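Long-time lurker, finally posting.

We've been working with Ubiquinone/menaquinone biosynthesis C-methyltransferase UbiE (Onishia taeanensis) and I want a structural starting point before designing mutants. I don't trust myself to interpret raw outputs, so I'm hoping someone here can both generate the structure tokens and explain anything notable. Sequence follows.
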Amino acid sequence: RTTHFGYQEVPVDEKASRVADVFHSVAARYDVMNDLMSFGIHRVWKRLTLERAGVRPGQRVLDIAGGTGDLTLKFSRKVGPRGQVVLADINASMLRVGRDKLLDHGVGGNVEYVQANAECLPFPDNSFDCITIAFGLRNVTDKDAALRSMTRVLKPGGRLLVLEFSKPDNPLLSKAYDDYSFHLLPKMGQWVAGDADSYRYLAESIRMHPDQETLKGMMEAAGLERVEYTNLTGGIVALHRGIKL
Ligand code: SAM
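Top reply, 14 upvotes:
Generated this for you. Predicted structure of Ubiquinone/menaquinone biosynthesis C-methyltransferase UbiE:
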């Protein structure tokens, strides 16, 4: 479906095509794997993100790297018929699974679906009251460009929330988590989705992702203010929030 925003050409590089392969491969089983791999805890992390977003009826929200649309579904209920939520993702397979799921949930007129790269968002400046990127930033090749692009399309007073794997704050938890992600996770990927490689990539991308303080600094460098974060599940995940003033 063509939207009034239009679509965006996606620049291809090696990491981007690797990420594309991973998400084309896991799209159909993404939701069930998410529940299995996180023991359902991703639902709690997303609920907290919704609370911290503080979205009100009538507002415009962008859920970038929104994949199968868990957050979009929650936001569409919050903003109501006068508001709008854009579910955007670089990957057509994820977007398709997300759109089908939201339609099954009876979501209608206030959600738009846009294939877009977070690094160069195809929206005018100052478009959104709130932007979320959940478990998406670590897949983006140029994270600084993505943070700048998201800041650009935020309205003044709007907020960006980044929900992402981070650095556990306790060495014992860190060791257990490494064992889990480098050994058990690829095996689960093999058993459930017949795809160990995608889940090996997942573990590697988590290890490479900037820690809490580094990401906070990157958000500030992109022009966001009052940046703060909350560690969830011992820092396995962190929720960062910054405001465009
Ligand atoms: N936000 C959803 C959630 O929390 O369940 C999906 C997260 S999924 C782990 C990561 C998503 O990021 C994938 O759907 C992938 O296609 C998308 N993605 C990766 N690189 C991207 C980019 N440069 N721009 C937009 N989306 C991207």
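Before you design anything, note these points.
The two ends are 34 Å apart (CA to CA).
The CA atoms of residues 107 and 182 lie 37 Å apart.
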